[in-house]
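Board notes (copied after class):
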Amino acid sequence: MKNLKKLILLGTIAVITFSFTSIVKTDWVVPAKYKTMKNPTDAKDKENLAIGKTLYAKHCASCHGKKGLGDGSKAPELKGDLGDFSSAEFHKQTDGEIFFRLIDGYEDMPGFKKKIASDEDRWLIVNYVRTLKN
């Protein structure tokens, strides 16, 4: 009976520990392959930027705001830091890092791998958010 109680206690602790560590991400780690990934689209093409702006307005602005300041209409409902796409800190990231974060999602931010299925469209959003500098 003692062994059964110990086994149940250990099993309960293991389940709680596993659940907690699998739910809580302590850092939004970008895999190495994305850090060096090159954007295959023309970031200066006006048509590309217009498409990126339209996609951003549709998928991103409600949380991140029209100018990427983290002040969108849904922002007050969210817990996490929505970032400031105009900041020097944001622009230190490589295009690949931004691309990964767009498809992966983190905390309140959903991943957009399925919602924006086209890699090209995701890259065009990356190009557009690059224009949101101070």
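Comment from the instructor: DSSP finds seven helices and no strands in the chain. Residues 26-129 form a domain with the Cytochrome Bc1 Complex; Chain D, domain 2 fold (CATH 1.10.760.10).
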